[in-house]
Every structure is written in structure tokens, then in C-alpha cells.
């Protein structure tokens, strides 16, 4: 279907079997998941290293499909100029959490603060919800601006996870497929 390698980058706790990232991976078996040694006690350096290894091992061009803390992992990795960053053609960053907010996010993710503010060296799209408990829509938009990413205000979708009813997420799949077509040159 695509010439790009797709890497799914889950957040805290991994994306369980009913999460939209798992649903997407089941529908597209060629998509791979970035694995972390500890999904419940994330360590920034470890998560960045795992992403670097996965991107380096994938065939270029790479498209990253990240959710929540996975999106913050992508941003940290990209601005640290991982040696494989040039292999990434695009990224979809869904519901990045405000890791700087003790009121909105759990302590487990605060080690990912501060939020990187440098432009990402590849095409990026940030999709956020107006009623995400982990980030105010204004903060999500500010992330996109800092990262030089396009921004989609998705309306009221919660954290766009299983608890919010995303499981199957055809609109998300459509975004991924559109991004892949763009990376593949409209093929």
C-alpha cells in the first residue's frame, strides 16, 4: 500500500488491545509498534533511545503515528537530533499531554518536561481535543506552533483513547492514510 515504514508510538501504559492505535495496527499489519522497556514508569532517555532504535531499523521514509506521551517522546527525540531523524518524513501527534502541568498530568510523565519548543525537522500534524483532561486546547495549539506543525482542533474527543471511546477510529485512520499518500507523493 505504501512505500513508507509506519511506526506506532504509544504513550504511558502502552495502547491496549482496544485502543485506536492497536485497532489501526490490526487493520494494517505492516505497521510496527515502538516498544518500551517500561510502559508504566517512563524514563525520557530510555523512551527516546527506543524510538531512535526503531527509526534506525525501519526502512525509510518513516511515518510516526504517536499518541499522548508518545508524541512528547517524538518531540524530544527530534529536537535532540537523533542520528536517524532524517529518515522521518512525517508524524501525526495525537493528544500530546501537558507534561509541565501537575494539575493535568500524572507524576509519571513529568520527567518529560520541559516541552520541547524547537521546530521539528519533518512534516508534523498535531491533533488535539477541546476537552482533553491532559492538555488544554490552547497548550496543544502552542505545542504545534513551536514544533512548526499543522494543527487540527478535533472538537470534544476527550483524550482520544479507549476511555474516550476510541477503539475503532475511522477518522484517525483517514488522517494516517492521507499522510501516507502525501509522503508517497500522492500515489
From TrEMBL:
Provide any one GO MF term from the record. Answer: hydrolase activity
Which keywords describe this protein according to UniProt?
Hydrolase, Plasmid
Q: Looking at the keywords, is Protein biosynthesis present?
A: no
Q: Does the keyword GTP-binding apply?
A: no
Q: Which Gene3D superfamilies match?
A: alpha/beta hydrolase
Question: By its UniProt entry, which InterPro entries does this protein fall under?
Answer: AB_hydrolase_fold, RBBP9/YdeN
| Protein name in the entry | Alpha/beta fold hydrolase
Q: What's the source species for this entry?
A: Azospirillum brasilense
Amino acid at each position: 500500500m505504501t512505500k513508507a515504514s509506519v511506526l506506532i508510538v504509544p504513550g504511558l501504559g502502552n495502547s491496549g488491545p482496544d485502543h485506536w492505535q492497536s485497532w489501526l495496527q490490526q487493520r494494517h499489519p505492516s505497521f510496527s509498534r515502538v516498544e518500551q522497556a517500561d510502559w508504566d514508569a517512563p524514563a525520557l532517555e530510555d523512551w527516546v533511545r527506543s524510538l531512535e532504535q526503531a527509526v534506525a531499523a525501519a526502512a525509510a521514509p518513516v511515518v510516526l503515528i504517536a499518541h499522548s506521551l508518545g508524541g512528547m517522546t517524538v518531540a524530544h527525540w527530534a529536537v535532540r537530533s537523533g542520528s536517524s531523524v532524517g529518515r522521518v518524513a512525517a508524524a501525526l501527534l495525537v493528544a500530546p499531554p501537558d507534561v509541565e502541568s501537575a494539575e493535568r498530568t500524572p507524576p509519571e510523565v513529568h520527567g518529560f518536561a520541559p516541552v520541547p519548543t524547537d521546530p521539528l525537522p519533518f512534516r508534523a500534524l498535531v491533533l488535539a481535543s477541546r476537552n482533553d483532561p491532559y492538555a488544554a486546547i490552547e497548550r496543544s495549539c502552542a505545542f504545534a506552533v513551536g514544533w512548526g506543525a499543522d494543527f487540527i482542533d478535533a472538537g470534544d474527543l476527550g483524550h482520544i483513547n479507549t476511555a474516550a471511546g476510541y477503539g475503532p477510529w475511522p477518522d484517525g485512520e483517514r488522517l494516517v492514510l492521507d499522510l501516507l499518500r502525501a509522503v508517497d507523493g500522492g500515489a
